[in-house]
Amino acid sequence: MTWNPTQYQKFTKEREEPFFDLLKLITPYPEMQIVDLGCGTGALTKVLYETLRAKNTLGVDSSREMLKESHPFVNETLTFQEISIEQFNPKEPIDLLFSNAALQWVPTHLEEIKRLTKYLTARGQIAIQMPANFDFPTHQIAKTLAKEAPFSIQEERPLTVLPLEEYAKLFFELGFEKQHVRCQVYPHRLESTTSAVEWVKGSLLTYYEARLSSSLYKQFLTEYQKRLLTYFGDQKPFFLPFKRILLYASGLKACR
Asked: Residue ranges of the domains in the chain?
């Protein structure tokens, strides 16, 4: 997919809030080795690195456009790698496996969590945040429209997350003694209904943009905005309740 850092960062304050909630769940240790999966521009990876005073932090992302923004943050112990989550294989043991708003793009993310847990140290922690608003009209309207002509997009990578209990069960089966699994609604007050279109253009709609020609995507975007305005009306302000899943697990030492 092609990511647009400028579009994505139009709602920086709103998109960053779950990151800081996830950060609060982590227990800091000296000399931590951290991996940030789906690090995007690296701005929050830098915050993670500095807040936890990590020994080393690696940000991983498949988007070259996003990673270009990370260049000013690079130093000897804060680095970035252009690679997909599925292809990433750590070279060093990990103390914290962190992922903020990325694993929902990986249909096999349950298997990836299992695979990457094997690289955790005895004091290892996992902290993951994923958007869970796929049943909201902003997402459902796009999904319905994508199936219609002339777009006719077949979703080979369905965008979804699993029921909360599936993650709790996974952490139990992996041997974590401590876990925190919750869904939280973040209330966002946007300027208008069309602001909601700008919101999804920076995230969800990149999925459809990557699968359409530029002319067809322009058509898609016009029809999408029309349907969203028909559904919600031209509200000013527009209230966007956004669900997110926050996952945390630790305590592998006693189980190994």
From this structure: 5-255
